[in-house]
Amino acid sequence: MRRQTGTAAVLAVVALAAAGCGGSGQGGEGEDVVLDFAWWGDETRAERYEQAVALFEEQNPGVDVRTSYASFSDYWTARNTEAAGGALPDVIQMDVAYLAEYSLNGQVAPLDEHLGETIDVSEIPESLLPSVQVDGQTTAIPTSTNTLGTLYNADTMDALGLDIPEDGPLSWDDYDALLTDIAEAGAEEAEPVYGASNYTTVFWLFQIWLAQQGKALFDGEGGLGFDEADLAEWWGRAEPLYESGAFVPQQQLDQIEGADAIGLGVTASETSWDNFLVRFSEGAGGAEMVMVPPPADDPDERGLFLKASLMLSMASNTDHPEEAASFIDFIVNDPEVGEIFGMSRGVPASSAALEGWEAEGLDAQILEYEQSVQDYVSPAPPPAVGFGTMEAEFARIAEEIGHGAVTVDEGVDQWFELAEAAMAG
Amino acid sequence: MPTTTAVPGGAPPPPSAQQLARGEGDAPAPGRSVRRYRPEDTRAGYAFVSPWLLGFVALTAFPMLASLYLAFTDYNLFRAPEFVGLDNFADLFTDPRFLQSCQVTAVYVFVGTPIKLAASLGAALLLNTKHRGQGVYRSIFYLPSLIGASVSIAIIWRAMFIDDGVVDQIQQLVGLPAGGWVGNPDMTMPMMILLAVWTFGAPTVIFLAGLKQVPTELYEAAEVDGAGPVRRFWSITVPMLSPVVFFNLLMETISAFQVFSSAFIISGGTGGPAGSTLFYTLYLYLRGFQDFRMGYASAMAWVLVIVVGIITAVLFRTSRSWVHYTGDVR
């Protein structure tokens, strides 16, 4: 008899332990609604989100927002795993690279029923909406827009006795020649300065280069808008620049982790997202940066686009769609949130978020830049299945070419093979 | 990560404690009073193992079976798996990155493991001599193993071998071509092997235990017969130690196939530069969790299980000719 009691006791303990694992986040009547919100970014963004969330909770008693964040790639690893288990946080930060997959597979909810009700989109330019729509349904709301710009480290350029070309875009060949000049002058410094890191690794810059020739990354019908020859020509630009020393050797670049070459003063120029101006300026170099439009052979065909960025989506598994929608609306439109973030996310997509405060310093520089190129922007590439993989593989293969591990032609073949598999899903 | 939990399934049971002790313990004599079988004993037994059993079934057995099924499907985490037969396995052998990951892992296993075993045997021999403060030395030599598999060591390793890191500075001092190892595709493998060799504490402790078990009479007898230290090492230590060598060889080979965290951290999760640290498990992870090709990743996991299984079987077969157990009738 005693033995059986023991058996029962052990089983009871096991059962309790198992129950404990299950957990339960379900609040009863009258309890706070808990919204989980996940995003990618760094610590400075964390501080800003914390302030914004505190403000939201103050204005919405009874709603409790729990946040978590990670770096971009870790963020997507975690979300993908959660998506597979149907346990996504209620609100997630979304990128155009993943929007199509998440929307087509029903992981994020269509927001159309909330538009004009809980979520105000009247202050968001209509030209941005195609980038957040998949199959005619709106599945994300952009908090901001950004575009690419070519940045120069003004202090380095000054020290090397070189001028920053501020009158309109350089042609691609002139830009390459300038990078070579920088490297020649910079080779005599104690810590050699290079022109730039390999810009052919940037998938989005490839889009700009294609658009300048009337092509695009995607043909809008589920296929690619360019062929092997285009990619070979693009990646082929890198080789002479490595030879002349204009590009930082890939070997050195691989060792700068979590920092930016231009921020450290290793390079004098980079082509990157305009909101990165903040990050580069506040990097270890701490230099003054000047931002001008990316190269273009024909100044009227810039190929620029405004990318809807740092979007917010609602998980379709959320228990609190109303609260989630009002949280999205708050982060997108509230002017106080706009002021907290400044231009660190890019320029706010909603002009409502710009009201009542003045952009200063770096923020003003970003705003000014984005306004200066506004007449030249064409529509951004739409969300496409496999975009995230294509972008990651594009950078990886371009880097391997930089290492000399594969030739341009081998790399092009590899990328097309991977891209076709990624588009198939 | 369920896909990698599949891997330990390839491990054979290690040689029993009795084999390790070279058959010294005889089978226990049967008790004088044999108790009658009682069913409630069985029940209590199952109740007591149930926490482990639940964990095993839910966290090991089920994920392994699931990954076996997924290996034959096209599964991207979002949509239901779609059966594709052997397609994943066929794709593997035309995938240049898969072949590269095999090559990287093979070099690491077949070069790194022997070096690590030689280093740990050497350390064990040194630690087996009689010196004052030997206990302190033993602790110090074991120390790296306590922290070796951890994330922090990989981060420190990266910092040491980077441009202008400690290693680079020493190279500059002695006039060797300067440059960090981390960004140089030719130097990352030596760096990874060094990291593995440096954490030789676990096999060293096992070697040391083995050395302690060698009867001193054998050495004394050999000495009387005029055998020098080298002869004594090859004719007594090595054969007497061969079961321990075999055990260490198996364990280190299997764990070398599964190296992941150090490569993940040192390459920033990419397997770079130029794929030179693209270890098998790292590529498996990238395929599964970055490209969402879970079916493909599962197929990779099972190929690894099979390969490790074959290598283990081969080792066992060859062991008959070089592993000596005392008491064997030969």
From TrEMBL, chain A:
Pfam hit, one: SBP_bac_1
Protein name stated in the entry = Extracellular solute-binding protein
Instruction: Supply the alphabetized keyword list.
Output: Signal
Domain of life, per lineage: Bacteria
Checking InterPro entries in the record gives: Bact_solute-bd_prot1 (IPR050490), SBP (IPR006059)
UniProt keyword annotation of Signal present? yes
> Which range is the signal sequence, renumbered to this chain?
1-19
Automatic annotation (TrEMBL), chain B:
Q: How does it sit in the membrane?
A: Multi-pass membrane protein
Transmembrane ranges, per UniProt, are 45-72, 106-127, 139-160, 191-211, 232-251, 263-285, 297-316
Sequence segments annotated as region (Disordered): 1-35
One family name in Pfam for this protein: BPD_transp_1
List the keywords (alphabetical).
Cell membrane, Membrane, Transmembrane, Transmembrane helix, Transport
Where's it found, cell-wise? Cell membrane
| Xref: SUPFAM superfamilies | MalF N-terminal region-like, MetI-like
User: In this protein, which residues make up the domain named ABC transmembrane type-1?
Assistant: 102-315
Instruction: Give start-end ranges for the coiled-coil region(s).
Output: none
Q: What InterPro entries does the record point to?
A: ABC_transporter_permease, MetI-like, MetI-like_sf
KW Transmembrane (keyword) present? yes
Recorded family membership = Belongs to the binding-protein-dependent transport system permease family.
Q: What is this protein called?
A: Sugar ABC transporter permease
Protein's organism: Myceligenerans pegani
Read off the lineage from the record: Bacteria, Bacillati, Actinomycetota, Actinomycetes, Micrococcales
